[in-house]
Amino acid sequence: MNRKSSKLYVGMDVHKESIDLAVAEESGEVRHHGQIGGDMNALWRAVRKLESSGRELVFVYEAGPCGFGIYRGLTARGHSCWVVAPSNTPRRVRDRIKTDRRDSLKLAGLARAGELTPIYVPDVRDEAMRDLVRTREDAVMMQRQARQRLAALLLRNDVRYAGKTAWTAAHRRWIAELKLPQCAQRLAFEEYVQAVEEASARVQRLGQCIEQELATWRWRSVVGALQACRGIQLIHAVRIVAELGDLSRFSHPRRLMAYLGLIPSEASSGEHRQQGAITKAGNSSARRALVEAAWAYQFSAKVSALIARRDRGGDRARARRLCVGDCATRQARLILDPAERRQRTRGLTLQLDRRGDALAVGESSNGLLDRQSLRHPRR
After folding, report:
1. Residues 271-310: tens digit of each pLDDT
2. CATH: 3.40.50.2300, 3.30.420.140, 3.40.50.300, 1.10.10.10. Which one for 7-113?
3. Coil, strand, or helix at residue 119?
4. Fewest CB atoms within 10 Å of the CB: 28, 130, 286, 359?
5. Is the pTM of this model over 0.90?
6. What is the pLDDT, as a whole number, of residue 58?
7. Burial 190-225 (b: 16+ CB within 10 A, else e)
């Protein structure tokens, strides 16, 4: 084989302060190339040294906290770069020694053997939108924690709200009129109230920022189409699209459901076949968003005032999709045979609703909603 035309697979074990490099020739050994610093300048020096060999370079590293900067830099230089998921990297059960050197050697060898599957890497703008959406998720979590701390303080002092729902306008007026007996308790109470107000304001600001960025985002039309599904409004739709990226990369709704972890687990052997709960092996943020949206399916479908205002004078094609989520759910429930229907529980119904919502998302992108994709695998 011509030395100049052969490939050289470069495995990289990337950390904040260091990068271990290993190389694997197409018909040669896998060897450790060395350890360099974790900064980009040190990496480019090592890349230039590898480029001097005149071979086609294929870099591979596992996705991690260092992001996709290495991927974008290497592809900009004209090299192939694979980013693989650590959970999808084959591992031998008997391996009990793990070092950076061994990890880089393993990545180079597996890449040469064709046993690694690259993940989808979003472009810079899509990743920036995803960061903004995740920042809002963190802000919502901090708001929830601040409210819980305030409620715990009031409960310890036997201060109870007589209304039905917390954090409504009436509940906030009730909190504003409270006055605890001790000075120290009043100070603690005021700090907690201020923390709740600051967290709520942060969530509102981030929501406005998402709406502003959406105006120039390339997936704006997809976000609008997803809002035709029940339980999905603007922030929810942006969250789903930001986490999933280009939905056209899923050739069928089944692949989308597998990516979201909404397919049943299975432990079968021989003639015995046993299926369990959903795998939850996928993008957890997008799956949570769909699960939250799926709760809307417990109510009958209707065009609310909000949907009517949103669709008045808007995209008629989007309006025609208003019943997609409801059709998916009804199909899922009708497909169950009588024995399964008698044994159906609320948890199973919710699981089917989740799958129906995921199918509606897939249909909004690819037009691939069909009856067969909602069937459980045959027993």
Report:
1. 889 999 988 888 899 999 988 888 888 888 777 777 777 7
2. 3.30.420.140
3. coil
4. 28
5. no
6. 96
7. eebbebbeebbebbeebbeebeebbeebebeebbbb
